[in-house]
Amino acid sequence: MSAGPLPVAEPGGLAGHLDGFVRAVREAGIPVGISQAVDAAEILTVVDLLDREQLRHGLAAVLLQRAAQRPTYDVLFDLWWPLSDRPARPGHDTDPSDESGDGADSTLDLPDGGEDLAELMRAELLRLLADGDEEALRRLAREAVERLGRGQPSPSGQSFFSYRVMRALSPDTLVSRLLEGLLAGADRGGLAEQVARQTVRERLATFRAAIEAEVRRRTAAEKGRDKVAKNAVRPMADQVDFLRAQASDLAELRRAVAPLARRLAVRLSARRRLGRQGRLDFRKTVRASLATGGVPVVTHHRPRTVHKPELVVLCDVSGSVAGFSHFTLLLTQALREHFTGVRAFAFIDSTDEVTRFFRPGADVVDAVQRIGREADVVAFDGHSDYGNAFDVFADRWAGAVGPKTSLLVLGDGRTNYRPPGLPVLADLVRRSRSAHWLNPEPRRLWGSGDSAADRYGDVIDMVECRNAAQLAEFVTTL
């Protein structure tokens, strides 16, 4: 059993501590309502407060709605309910003689410093990794940070650093010895080795996470939890700016975009203004009213013709919006799977149709690579030229946009000071059933420098769409 010391000394006691934790979770982008906060307070009355993992899972059950929120939650939980090897009980302070200030007992009889200390800890780490005891690994991580992680305070005031511990222990160099122990003479290259390698990776990841959590805990003790939380917590997937999205964010973005694309397809499809039924069939209605003295109690309607939604997507794939390009193609692929008629066009300083790269089930990364190799999107110097791109699109695919078509433009509207092609865009918007432009740049930057976004906004509905959360808001209000 391991638990964090109960925060009875804080203003407001345990209730005040929980309130601060819930507020931090909310500020990190996880929606927490009043009812969930009340449920969290109720959790404190039914779980063992000295069982840290029970408390972690109990609060997670009432505060989280999606599995993607769990990593952010765990970082904040470790800051507000830190690990302690010797649980503090209500009314009992930690030992004042404990220099670490956390009440933790030393797990090893080790010298004060030097190479012998690092080698002894390294040998202990090898033994614990082979055993797979996660609690013992966490205790070793705490002691390693205390004994090896302290350095000269940085300008920000941080005194403990994970890189110092990892450099001293070099856990990645223990992989071969761990494999020998786990395989125990089994043949190399088979399933047993694959399982052993996966086990080693997981145990090393557990140790690294424990080191980082301990460094955050000690930094929080020096600088305050709130300051550390703002820097330690990664933005939620739906709050990551598309222009700054990394490869590691794409998988989560894909999961976030797919349901939004489904909803967007429904919103952009033809709205049945007359409800489920078609126009009134006057002749049948009058004939039926004869049975009720000429009063049309029951009306009859003609069968309604179901309109198949059509969508044209124009995507800027220039280097200035490289991160956004991945998102736009993710969105295009998702729309292809939910929209009956989608035509996708990519452009830089010229335009080409790329619908063929988005077959159902096609990989977006592969589609991006094929567009770069095969699509004819560069005519001159490879710098954005919206005016020429619009001209090429209007000349080559004049019939792509019509009264039944929804037009969706995706780009930052930065023209490199070239003609923006406003008359052509205005004509496309006029001919379409509906038209929207999603811009990944903050609204405050529209019209600055070579941005023509403010001018485009005069002829088309320009929407700020920097992350999946704003895309969801656009879909909801559409």
Please summarize what this structure is.
The chain has 18 helices and six strands. With 478 residues, it is an alpha/beta fold. The chain is globular.
What can you see in these coordinates?
This protein has 478 residues and is α/β, with parallel strands linked by helices. It folds into three domains: 13-90; 115-224, no CATH class; 247-270 and 307-477, Rossmann fold. It contains 18 helices and six strands. The protein has helices at 13-27, 34-43, 52-63, 70-80, 115-131, 134-148, 162-169, 175-183, 191-223, 225-232, 247-268, 282-289, 322-338, 364-374, 386-396, 422-431, 453-456, 468-477; strands spanning 310-316, 341-347, 351-353, 405-410, 434-439, 461-464. The chain has a six-stranded mixed sheet with strand order 3-2-1-4-5-6, sandwiched between helices. α5 packs antiparallel against α6, α6 (134-148) packs across α9 and α11 packs across α13. The chain is globular and about 95 Å long. The two termini are 51 Å apart. The relative contact order is 0.07.
Mean pLDDT: 79
Shape: globular
- Proportion of residues in extended strands: 5-15%
Structural class of the secondary structure composition? Answer: alpha/beta
Q: Which stretches of 5+ consecutive residues score pLDDT under 50? A: 85-107, 270-275
Count of DSSP strands:
6
Using only C-alpha atoms, the radius of gyration works out to 30 Å
Roughly how much helix do the residues carry, as a percent range? 40-55%
Structurally, the number of domains stands at 3
User: Major sheet: order of its strands?
Assistant: 3-2-1-4-5-6
Element-by-element helix/strand order: HHHHHHHHHHHHEHEEHHEHEHEH
CATH C-level name of the largest domain: Alpha Beta
Number of helical stretches of at least 4 residues: 18
Oligomeric grouping of the chains: single chain
| Major sheet attributes | 6 strands, mixed
CATH architecture of the largest domain: 3-Layer(aba) Sandwich
- Annotated CATH topology of the largest domain: Rossmann fold
How far is the N terminus from the C terminus?
51 Å
